[in-house]
Amino acid sequence: MSDLVLVRNDGTHRDKTGTTCSGVISRASAIEWELRLPGRPTLTVHDNHWVNGERDLVLYKPTVVPEMPAALSNLHNRLRSGISGTPKHGELRVMVFPTYVDTHDRPRIKKSLTTADLADEVGLPHLRELTARVGVRLASAFDRPDLPPVDLDDPQNEKSL
Question: CB count, 10 Å around CB of 56?
Answer without folding.
Answer: 22
